[in-house]
Amino acid sequence: GGSGSTPQKKGIGQRIKAIFWKQIEVAPPSPEKPVTTRAGKKGASPAHQPPVVTGPGAISLGGAGRPTIWSDVKKVELDTERFEILFKEKPKDPKVKDATLSPKRQLISVLDNNRSRNINISMTKLPAARYLKPAIMHMDTAHLTREGIETILKIKPDDEEIAKIRAARNEAGPDVPLASAEEFLMTLSSITELEARLKLWHFRISYESMESDVGNDMMYVKGALHTLEDSDTFKNVLGVLLTIGNFLSGKQYQAFHLDFLTKAPNIKDNSPHKHSMLYHVANIMLDTYPQCSNLHADFADVHKCSKMDFSVIQQTLAKMEASLNESWEHLRKIAKQDSSRDLKLQLSSFLGDVMERIQVLKTVHRRLLNRYHRVLLYLGFTMQDARNMKMEELCKILSEFSLDYRTIYDKVVTSRRKKESMRRRQKTQGELITGRRRKDQRDEADGSTVKSNAVSKPSAPTANLDSSLLKDEDPDHDQEDSLFETIVRDATSAKKVQDKYRRKRPSKRRKTLRRTINSEAEKDAIEQALKEQGQKAS
Length: 538
What we know:
mainly alpha, 2 strands
C-alpha cells in the first residue's frame, strides 16, 4: 500500500488487533484565511500539510493558524501484508468445560471453620514455616519469643487432628496440596516431643522474670518490717496518741491496738474549726520532736506492701518448684529423641542452677514470715491476733494513717510558717520605715547645703528654687518657659483626672518645690520672683 493507505483485510474472518489510543480529529484551516507560501503567493496547501479529517469532534491544534509538530510529521511506506500477518488476531478456541476438574484449586481441609480461622490468625504472629522448626529444635530466641511459644502451645495439634489430615491426604493423593492451617499443623507434628520442648523452653525464658518479681516483693516486705521496728517518728506518734488517749479516757494504759489508727482522724474537738486529734498530735510533735518527719516519707516500703498479697509469694514459689520438676521430666523425654549433646548440657546446667536458687528463695521467705510474726508481737499483738493478721491488712492500716497524718502535718507546718512570717513583718515593718525616713531627711539636708553653697545670692529661701526662675533673663527664653509651664500644667491636670482612682507609687527621693516651702518668708520670696518674671515677659 502507499503512504496513508489503510491496510486491507485478507480473506474472511481475518482481523487485525485493535489499538487502544486516543485519536485527534484535526479541523481544516479557516477558508477566510488562505495559506500563504514562503514566497508570499497565495495558493494551495503545501504537500506536508496534515490530512484534513472532518468530524463532529474536530478541533484546531496549536491555536488559530499556529503550526504544530504534526504539520512536520511525514508518513512512511509500510509493508501492509507483513504487518497483517504479524498483527493478525488469532481466533479463540471455544472453552470446553471438563466435568472432572473443579473451577477452583482443590485443597485438603479437614478442620472446622473456627479452628482453621484461629490457626491462620495465629500464623500471622509467628515466623515462616521454614524457620519455625529449626527455632524450636535449637530453642533460638532470635526467631521465636515468649509470646510466640505461648501461641504455639495454644494451637498445637492433637493426635486426632493429625490422623484426620493424614487420612485425607492418602485418600486425595500426594498431588493435592493441604490448606494453610492443615499444612501448619503437619509442620508442628514433624517436631519430636513438641510439647516437652515448648514447655521447657517457656520455663527457661520466663524463670528470670518470675524470680525478679518474687525477689522484689520480698525486699519490700523486709524494708517494711525494718521500718516498723526502727522508725523513731512512728514510735513518737504512737507515744503522743497514747498520752492523749489516756487523758481522754481517764486511765493509764500501756498500749493500744493498732486498729485505733483508723479511728483517730475521725475524733474531732469542740473548737470552731473542729480539728481532729491528729491536728493536736502534729502540733505536739512539732513542739516536742522537731527533728521528726511527716511519717509518710518513712513508710515507702509499707505503701508498696499494702498493695500486694503476701500469700502470692508462697504460691509463686510453689509454682516455680512444680515447673522445675516438670522441666526435668521434659528434658528426659527430649534426651531420648535428640542426640544434641550441647543442648542437653546447657539445659541440665540451667535446671540445676534454678533448683539451688529456688531453695534460697524459699529459705528467705520462711525467715521473713517468722520475722513478720515477731514484729506483730513487738507491736503489741497477741499470739492469736498475730496468726490472723495478714501482712497487707496491717500495711494498709499504717499506710492510710500515715497519709492522713502527713496531710494535717503539712497544714500545721504551713500555718506556723505564715504566722512566723507575719510576726516578723509586724516586728520589723516600723523600723524599716523609720530608718528610710531618717535617710531621706539626711539626703535632703545634704542637698540643701550643696545648693546654698553653689548659689551666690544670700537669700536662703531662694536656694531651692528652680534654676529657670533665676538664671535666665532673656525675654525669648522667658516666653518659652511660660509656654512650657502652661503645657505641663494642662497635661498634669488631665493626667490627674485620668488617674483619679489609681494609687501612685511614691518615689524614694522625691523632692518638689511644694515640699521646700517651710515658712512665710519663703512664700513671699517665691511670689516676688514670679512677679518679676511676669514683668519681664510683658
